[in-house]
């Protein structure tokens, strides 16, 4: 007899942040912060920075650098992440798209190909691309 306890109780067809109860603005902010954090952490890894080096580069205290390295974005503002990316010589670009009211409902059923891509330039000059939701 099969055990059905592992069946998903809910399948999301849209944005998981919507399912978690975040407002559209909160979800958008979290997506931007997560995309920016991913680019920052990738640059740190590629450059091989230690926490002590990051304290100097970012002009930040050790607990803040530790939070950054652990991915605790709830403790960081978008402005702070932008400042970190600037100090790490990462070029950031934000693209804003308006969605007409007639297309808002269809957005829930968009495919991954419909998502915009964000490009980040690393300190070494390489360009990284990260997906972001609409």
The fourth-level CATH homologous superfamily is lambda repressor-like DNA-binding domains
**Can you write the helix and strand succession as a string?**
HHHHHHEE
Low-confidence stretches: 109-116
Radius of gyration: 18 Å
**Strands, count:** 2
Count of the separate structural domains: 1
Quickly count the helices: 6
Helix content: 40-55%
CATH topology tier name: 434 Repressor (Amino-terminal Domain)
Please state the average pLDDT score.
77
Report the span from N to C terminus. 43 Å
List the helices and strands and how they pair.
Elements: H1 16-19, H2 24-47, H3 51-58, H4 62-69, H5 78-87, H6 101-104, E1 116-121, E2 127-132
Antiparallel strand pairs: 1-2
Helix pairs in contact: 2-5, 3-4
Kindly describe this structure.
The protein is built from 6 helices and 2 strands. Residues 109-116 have low confidence and may be disordered. Helix 2 (24-47) packs parallel to helix 5 (78-87) and helix 3 (51-58) packs across helix 4. A two-stranded antiparallel sheet has the order 1-2. By secondary structure, it is mostly helical. The protein is extended, with a radius of gyration of 18 Å. The longest helix is centred in the N-terminal third of the chain and has 24 residues, at 24-47. The protein has a single domain (22-132), classed as 434 Repressor (Amino-terminal Domain), CATH 1.10.260.40.
């Amino acid at each position: 007899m099969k055990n059905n306890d592992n069946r998903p109780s809910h399948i999301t067809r849209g944005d998981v942040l919507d399912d978690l109860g975040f407002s559209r603005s909160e979800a958008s902010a979290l997506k931007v912060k997560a995309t920016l954090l991913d680019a920052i952490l990738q640059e740190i890894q590629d450059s091989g920075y230690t926490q002590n080096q990051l304290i100097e580069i970012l002009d930040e205290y050790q607990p803040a650098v530790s939070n950054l390295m652990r991915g605790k974005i709830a403790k960081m503002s978008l402005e702070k992440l932008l400042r970190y990316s600037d100090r790490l010589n990462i070029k950031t670009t934000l693209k804003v798209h308006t969605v007409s009211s007639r297309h808002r409902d269809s957005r829930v059923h968009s495919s991954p190909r419909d998502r915009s891509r964000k490009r980040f330039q690393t300190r070494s000059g390489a360009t990284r691309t990260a997906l972001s939701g609409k």
